[in-house]
Amino acid sequence: MKQSVQRYSVKILSHEIIDKKVYYIINVYNMEGGEPKETRKRYSELESMHQKILDWINIFKIRIQNLNFPKKKLLFHTNQSEESIIKRRGELQQYFNQVLAYSELQCLDVIEEMLPKDIVNQKQFGQQTDRKWQEIQQLKESYLAKHGDSIFSLPQKKNGNSNKQQYIFKFEDHIIIDDCIVYTIEVNDTITQKRWKFNQRYQDLRDYHKQLKNLRFDFPLPHLPEKKSLSPKEILDLRERKSQLEYYLNRLFGYQLIVENDIMVFFIAKSQLDGNEIGCRSKGNSQNTLDNSSIQSKTQTTIEQIDDEKRINRKITC
């Protein structure tokens, strides 16, 4: 995909060190004028942002050149050297100028919140939205090519006065990965009758919730249960926790404005790409849901192994 005409320019000319942590001061300028937007981010936050950008590229099959995000130093911390910090500033500045050269990436929430807000062009915003739906269509075609005559589910607009909820979620199994609970969630599309399972951490649900809060709907979002840290013994029975999260997700998808929002379209698309269709007639051998998932781990603990760890003072995030 060709780069668009550069509309934004990024400069990272300074930084702050607070509690031995480096905060890069990022200024984004609109080439047409106006005041720049200033954002302060740590390297870890920018690294997380980069991962979301890569997810966006992979899900919507955006064809762009490799993005050169500066790698983490292995032998020493960057904040131990002023020279290293200044070098890192230059690398990050180059990276963000590369990112903002693509209008398709400017739609992503983590990028959009960095852009100057004073001269938003509604016409261009509409064009970006159309482009995004074209990319979702490309993803659909790619999925169907791999899964034969399966159905690719996307949120659909309601017809007439129908109150039928399109997506119903059910929390089923769970497993411990890197001291976090990973839930297996079954999705039932009541319109297309497609069902699939995918894996999700609580933190992922919380990230989606934060993105929705930033949109400021004219109605309150359903309450997301608070993060919990439990002992291995306590997580043996998570029925109540699963019931709370299941209730939240089903209430969330009861709002049609939320269902049709790009954030939730991304959520539904990614869950199918990472998950496994129930009754799938896809080409090739079927894989375990967790094998397909983008969730990766160095360690994996089954429920049966918890008894051996009761003596250890561990806390599991769920």
TrEMBL record:
<dbReference type="GO" id="GO:0032456">
    <property type="term" value="P:endocytic recycling"/>
</dbReference>
<dbReference type="GO" id="GO:0035091">
    <property type="term" value="F:phosphatidylinositol binding"/>
</dbReference>
<dbReference type="InterPro" id="IPR001683">
    <property type="entry name" value="PX_dom"/>
</dbReference>
<protein>
    <recommendedName>
        <fullName>PX domain-containing protein</fullName>
    </recommendedName>
</protein>
<dbReference type="Pfam" id="PF00787">
    <property type="entry name" value="PX"/>
</dbReference>
<feature type="domain" description="PX">
    <location>
        <begin position="161"/>
        <end position="274"/>
    </location>
</feature>
<dbReference type="GO" id="GO:0006886">
    <property type="term" value="P:intracellular protein transport"/>
</dbReference>
<feature type="domain" description="PX">
    <location>
        <begin position="1"/>
        <end position="122"/>
    </location>
</feature>
<dbReference type="GO" id="GO:0005769">
    <property type="term" value="C:early endosome"/>
</dbReference>
